[in-house]
Amino acid sequence: MKHNQPSRRSFLKSATSTAALAAGGSLGSLGALRAATPVHQGGGQLKIGIVGVGGRGCGAAVQAILAHKENVLHAAGDAFADRLEGGLDGVLETVTEHGKKEQFQVPPERRFVGLDTLDKVLATGVDGVILTTPPGFRPLQIEKAVAKGVHVFAEKPIASDALGVARVRAACELAKQKGLSVVSGLCYRYHDGRRAIIQRLQEGGIGDILAIQGSYVTGELWSFPRQPQWTELEWQLRNWLYYPWLSGDHIAEQHVHTLDVMAWMKRDVYPIAAVSLGGRQVRTDALFGTVYDHFSTIYEWEDGTRGFSYCRQQNNCFREVNEYVMGTEGQANVFRQTITGKNEWHFADKARDMYQAEHDEMWAAVRAGKPINNGEYMCNSTLMALMGRMAAYTGQRITWQQAMQSQEKLVPDQLTFEDMPPKSEVAMPGKTRFV
Q1: Which pTM was predicted?
Q2: What is the pLDDT of residue 50?
Q3: Domains of the chain, first to last
Q4: Bridge partner list, 218
Q5: C-alpha distances in angstroms, 376 versus 81, 310, 335, 386, 416?
């Protein structure tokens, strides 16, 4: 990814949120949230806002527009002006190619720059908001959107620490009471082929599941070289992947997709504990902040199932993104949607684009007054990833209860461009303490 505006084609293909922070404000309690507002139903225009106009955010904006002829992009915000304008230029170009130019309605007065852009976008009267900023700020953003009575599309993961997960869980419960949709960027749940094979696995297609191998081993991702005019905070925000307080580390930011599928096939029963090996072997330069470049994690389920989870971001190495499942009556290759053994099966239908399917289903549900709420699994799958990170960082076996009750607080209550970012050090197993 270059430092100037991203390719418009990357918008529709990217599954990784690449936007900058646009949260700001202080963290309020859910008890102070406003009363429920009316839920949009039926025909007519739906006004959609976006906060975080990077590659994934721009892709989501296009997909929201393409989901219905009366969906309009109404307002946008980003921490940085170059990201905002470059991203919106790409969105406009892409929707124009699809003959949807009239659905792009973001004049200069509804384009916001800074750390308080979420508040400004919500104040324009949007019906729904797309949140594609660094995950560390997702809890505050989801809380504010739900408080405002606004439907939410939130990229994964939904927090960088367990305290943030708890906040999102509470906000999603409130969204249910208000009749608001909260749709997660865990896009595999919206892939037709994966839905089909997961249903078969849940129904005993390979008998009892004994073991799951989940891999997300890939190369290095983008980074932006430091500019002399940038503060330390701006440097970290622009390179947010490499700071656990912003991204949760890549076991959460990227590998959460794989972990989510592993739990999904277990009927959303989550593991009771994790042990993990991890570290920085190749990406040791300061350019890569303080995250690890590999994790190898064993997840333990109460019924005896073991999940063997591998993720790596190193160049010139073997790459694979897949889940293999071993059962008492066969095996499954989830990526290829194939079952071998007693019940041979292969998904032969054509699958929709899963990124577009997320938005097709979300905005159709909003219009039908039948809200979708992905809150439970998006919170639990994020916690599953964070549990693996806790185990790797500390070198300890971490239980689900320990992870849920963790008091580690990575994200400050308030943040301005004049502030220094939270102190961040490379975790050392056996020395870093569980909090």
Answers
A1: 0.91
A2: 98
A3: 8-188+358-373 (3.40.50.720), 209-327+382-404 (3.30.360.10)
A4: 313
A5: 35, 24, 24, 15, 31
| Lookup: tokens for 420 | 């220094």
Structure confidence at residue 14 (pLDDT): 36
For residue 23, what pLDDT is reported? 35
pLDDT digits (tens, 9 = 90+) for 386-418: 999 999 999 999 999 999 999 999 999 889 888
Cis peptide before 157 (omega within 30 of 0): yes
Number of Cβ atoms within 10 Å of the Cβ of 265: 27
Burial call 76-103: b when 16+ CB within 10 Å, e when fewer: bbbbbeebbbbbbebbbebbeeeebeeb
- List the one residue out of 214, 244, 202 whose CA is nearest residue 389: 244
3-state helix, strand, coil in the chain (%, to 5): 40, 20, 45
Lateral strand order in the sheet of 128-131? 111-113, 71-78, 46-51, 128-131, 151-154, 182-184
| Whether pLDDT at 13 is above 60 | no
- Could you give the 3-state DSSP secondary structure of residue 262? helix
**pLDDT at res. 277:** 98
CA 207 from centre of chain: 31
Long-range own/partner contacts, residues 223-231 (CB < 8 A, 24 or more apart): 223/287, 223/288, 224/3, 225/3, 225/287, 231/417, 231/418
Give pLDDT tens digits for 62-118.
999 999 999 999 999 999 999 999 999 999 999 999 999 999 999 999 999 999 999
Q: How far apart are CA 319 and CA 315, in angstroms?
A: 9
Place of tokens 């852009």: 117
Strand, coil or helix: 35: coil
